[in-house]
Amino acid sequence: MTDVVLEAKGLELRREGLPILSGLDWTVCNGQRWVVLGPNGCGKTTLVQTIQGRLHPWAGEFTVLGKRFGKTDITGLWKEVGFAGEALERLFPETLVLEDLVATARLGTIGVLFDEPSAKDRKAAREELERWGLGGKFRQPYRTCSLGEKRKALIARAIAARPRMLVLDEPFAGLDPAAREGLIAHLSQLAREQPELPILLVTHHVEEIPPEWTHGLFFSPQGFCCGPLGKVLTGQNLSEIYRREFSLKRISGRFFLLPAGH
Predict the structure, then answer these.
(1) pTM of the complete model beyond 0.85
(2) Residue ranges per domain, the chain?
(3) Does domain 4-259 have CATH number 3.40.50.300?
């Protein structure tokens, strides 16, 4: 449970030469589940893309799953870092059905235009879809699914590839309360079934943090705050992050953000 899977030392990330994130020191170990919080434009998405090997650091040291950027070949990271997020959804063809979406994860393709998934891959895909409550929708086109079903299918795809790390980029965005709570329950179950799997969850809302989550990385105008969730997730830290006074309550392992004075 103490094996390091991600380490950043003085990490600086830029886009088109402009600093997006600077001076990040951060370590993630097996068995830890991190929530990444911060205002829009603070660098959360840029960090997620770097973890997948899609972007490269401007400065500092960055190592993911034993691969140090700039020193070793990182082209295989996409196979080891499971990802679910809107950036991937834009690439799906309209006719893509859920079984093909999940079954092709191990091939590193989207759909069956290039390689045909094996019978083993398809069996694993159906089992994963069943686990996420999508067992009756194997042949349903992805584009016709509800938003909640789409988010579950994306996570099922990421898990089906048996990743060493899972990154979830704002999976609750746009969901109604029922779909949100259903997805939180599924993520809680995943944490219990695969307690060794490190998971990074990017979100704007503390209400979306499952009870099983252990650590937090918070972006603020003053810098970064990271550590065990019980220590860093406080009303004071959230007030600094979002530049407005808040209070925080915890009920049955879940966090709820309230205006100051409540």
Answers:
(1) yes
(2) 4-259
(3) yes
